[in-house]
Fold this protein.
Amino acid sequence: MDENIYPLENGGVGTFDDHKNNARINYRGHLTGIVVDDSLDIVELFSTCLELKGIKVLGKGYDGNDAFELFKQLRPDIVFLDIMMPRYDGFYALEKIREIDPQAKILMVTADLTSATAERLKGLPSTAVIYKPFDFDVLLRTIDMLMHSSVLNNMAFDGSSVSVL
């Protein structure tokens, strides 16, 4: 197998090519996800970018309850979940999804850098956290790491680096 092609847990393949130090990952339509954010524009932009990289977006939602219902119905490979949303926030969705699938791959996305949010995230089993604004290539490398990991880790990154929570 080409050293730049990786098997994914769902049977698909991902590619990772370094070109001028930028990640180029294409999942060739084998990876599925849902995108949840209270901003319609962010959901559409994020979904379009993921689709261009071969990640099939199965559903879009706008609060934590949408995230839970979409996950329950669609069972995507990965959930892209905003934290701060009105009515039902990302913490609500994270807790509800973990009740039905403790091993779900959940990437929390937030612009909230407060210590209270950081502490709350440490106490909850998210898979990874990305802080807005972020570099899309770093996001793709993180997705690649998540999909190759059989262990549920808490990772956080600020858009340019990754660390374990």
Remarks:
- Residues 16 and 25 are 5 Å apart (CA to CA).
- The helical segments are 40-52, 64-74, 90-100, 115-122, 136-148.
- Strands lie at 5-7, 13-19, 22-26, 31-36, 55-61, 78-82, 105-110, 128-131, 155-157, 162-164.
